[in-house]
Amino acid sequence: MPTISVNRDALFAALGQKYTDDEFQTLCFEFGLELDEVTTEKQMLMKEQGEQAGAGTSEEILYRIDIPANRYDLLCLEGLVSGILVFQGKISPPNYTLRKAEDHYALHLTPATAQIRPYAVAAVLKGLHFTKQSYESFIDLQDKLHQNICRKRTLVAIGTHDLDTIEGPFVYDALPPKDIKFKALNQPKEHTAPELMELYSNHAQLKQYLGIIRDSPVYPIIKDKNGVILSMPPIINGDHSKITLNTKNVFIECTATDLTKAIVVLDTMVCMFSQYCSNKFEVQQCKVYAPDGTYELYPKLEHRQEVINVEKANNYIGINEGGERLASLLSRMCLQTRLEGDSLLVSVPPSRHDVIHACDLYEDIAIAYGYNNIPRRAARVATAGAQAALSKLTEQLRAVCALAGYTEALTFTLCSREDIGSKLGRDLAAEPAVHVANPKTLEFQVVRTTLLPGLLKTLAANRGLPLPVRLFELSDVVLRDDSAECGAVNARRLCALHAGRAAGFQLVHGLLDRVLAQLRVPWARAAGDTGYRLRPAQDPAYFPGRCAEILLDDKVIGKIGVIHPTVLANFELTNPCSAVELDIEPFV
Q1: Which one of 101, 150, 527, 557 is separated from 73 by 20 to 30 angstroms, measured CA to CA?
Q2: What is the pLDDT of residue 55?
Q3: Can you give the pTM of this predicted structure?
Q4: 296 or 2: whose pLDDT is higher?
């Protein structure tokens, strides 16, 4: 859930009313938001960077407000104020108008762009009157959208340019990196694209975006009629067309790998800031030409019609209100609605791209009605709640292990490929492991198939503890299973580890006997008998001749043995260790 920081005084001025912190928190709750924190810029910097960071920063009060992830229209002060005022009935929802496209604002795509970012949309805002506050909000909204719907610029990258410093029509092209040279934003001189990639490799904000295009044979660029490069999306804009407080006309371009997301982003940008245009809420359309010569007009700012049934809405929410009342509640949420018979005809504006289904409309009715005002009612189906049998067994076995002198560890479910493969002496290809498609770090590449590596790493991180060290974990592993609906299944396991001056095999064996005795499982003296027994086995993770399989009614449910010295060395351990690991689900 994204969080926005707004200046309290500026917010109250825009709302036309002052509130106490508690009153504003109540208003946020009624509107479906949450006031997360009341702070200052100085306090925020001190919390993030230490005592010295707050020197010279503002002491103005900031409200940090949690915004639902799909409410892109509330990610800036302008959208938040407009939404609240409409909710309070103080203003009507904005009515956006489109100004006819002009050819000299057209954006032409070349065929080369299909290799990297195949889509683009554009718009123009004219006659803007920026203040310092609205200018900062304009920039901040772009950042919020980049982190949210744009997925850190991988899906969409936004570029904003001072229209008076450039000349259309514009071209969206893709060129080899060595052929690109321009003066990037706030840079003193021109750089080639490879030089910029090197320059920004240590930049606190921009380095995270370099990988999006770094390995591509071509880099995307936007340039004007005279060849002036406006931006190299998704990395950086050009310095020539940067917007300032004095900017009056803005050209907005969005390049994308997802056209739908680009349309949502462009609509959000122009809907929020067209209120500062000389003709309020008017947006200039742009012709965007595809490589084949056809064109589309953007932004579209389309109003979509949805129809919902009054009775069904009441039943879903648990209220009993007339159609006119439900229509007024939806209108308070910027969704202009009228009643026709027993149906509600809802007009969804271009600022509300979060409304994609009837259930979204039911949710908005419930918010406007007030969650606390919905009457409580008994469940229509009588049920008896109880703890799941597997969870109950897990809690009981935790107590057994703790009473036996073992300390519980909770380790990561994700691990590296080496942890379950080469470090244990096993072939990773033979392991039924679920692999993470795009791991962020080498530590989290696969989902664990055994609990043993986690305990060994925990032991390695606590080498300073006096011996012996006894650890256990009762948790899930994930195993690939093509017959399962999602391709994998969870398995609840118990793993215990003993480390000391000697291997201590008899101690983990004793724990196994204690656990199974508590489960009322007898010892099976021979194959075919009911109960559990051990059978010699070979596993590269365990010392040869000192490893056994645990069988329950002649079915393998786990292993026990002395850890192989090579495995200990792989996990940077020097003391002998013994371990037992078994599946507890057969005992449920």
Answers
A1: 101
A2: 53
A3: 0.69
A4: 296
